[in-house]
Amino acid sequence: MIKNFLEILKGSRGKRIIYWSLFDFANTSYMVLIMTISFAVYFTEVIVGKENALRDFYWGLSISISMLVVALLSPILGAISDRSGLRMRFFIISTAICLLFTTLLAFLGSGTIALAVAFFILANIGYQASSVFYDSLLPSISEPQDVGRISGFGFAMGYLGAFFAVGFSYPIFLLAERMGDISLLRYSFLVCSGLFMIFAMPLFINIRESRVITGNLGFAALSKYGFSKVFKTIRSYRSHANIFKFMLAFFLYSNALVIMAFFVAIYARNTYGFKVSEIAVLFLFAQIPAVIGSFIFGFITDRIGPKRTIMMTLGLWIIIIVIALTGKTKIALYIVAALSGFASPSTFASSRALMSLLVSKDEEVEFFGLYGLFAKLSSITGPLVFGLISSITGSQRLAMSVVILFLAAGLIVIIPVKENPRHGLPGV
């Protein structure tokens, strides 16, 4: 299996796959250091302050606003870039926006709440928008028979990048903890932007837009086309019912995965008593099975099809949540970290692979834009549901139990989805 995949990586297409996957290596540092570990703590404890009762509200509001804006922009930008042949240009611009405002976050101190919220929203909009353009490149570098392995390879590179970013920032975590100065976490933001920029460059330098520009359209014309294309895509529900059914399933189980991503550090600190440095170690521990899982499930996806693979990983996720709910010691959370590290990239890679197979080549950007929209919507609703239940009941374990409901609902909805028969993959 590995030998066959290494054959794919040879030649000009192999280089394009490697350049493409390096962006996964690059941008995961943002998700890990900004969204999950460093900036979440820095924002609530330094910028807003521990004594401010609204610190979690401000953090949640920042996430919700940024994801809402991205949810509205993602399909529009996708359609605009598809029409004008400017996908790579939009890709570079959105990445640059993320890098700029991530760097600026490091220069904000106590009390700069408004600026921090604004900079974070802009950085996150840039990050999320760039992900839409990145995902839409997958069909152009893969073939139906190897899309699962290539998608899995990308996620494996992403988790290697996360391992590298956290490992590189770990001395900062230890220093901040030992000196009792959480404000030192700001230097990890610079680590994030630096790694992101360095490893994103190979893609931007070596991969060119292959689409033919259809006309020299102005912004107003492009915007009009973008909006009309989005609404046309949504109105095509009946003729694309299979795709929309999958995206609904994706939305449901993505709520569960988003909750785990945004609240795992908080859950570990408040429910299991982990320190920041221990959370970093926990995260590093999860990266090893994450890389292994990306490759293993990549081959499984190509063998049995992405739909069956997704169903397998959702079953594994339900087991993971049960352990997180019933565990009593830190060892339980290490088991959760290992299993979730194994399942997470596999779920997203299989989902990306299935989406790639369901859409036609001439509709890939529009539908990947909607695919991004459903992902962003889950990033609004999932954390909101968790936060409300946790706040009302005072129990994070009870709030975590809702994750099982999202997973079960997604599993039920995906059952009737049919994989595109023209690709010769096994159907369910």
Write out key terms for the chains shown.
428 residues; mainly alpha; Growth Hormone, Chain: A; 15 helices; disordered C terminus
Structure characterization notes:
- The chain is mainly α.
- Helices cover 82% and strands 0% of the residues.
- The protein has helices at 2-8, 11-47, 55-84, 87-105, 113-136, 138-141, 147-179, 186-206, 219-235, 241-272, 276-304, 306-326, 330-358, 364-393, 396-414.
- Helix 7 (147-179) runs antiparallel to helix 11 (276-304).
- The longest helix has 37 residues, at 11-47.
- The radius of gyration is 21 Å and the shape is globular.
Number of domains: 1
The topology string of helices and strands comes to HHHHHHHHHHHHHHH
Structural class by helix and strand composition = mainly alpha
Strand tally, please? Answer: 0
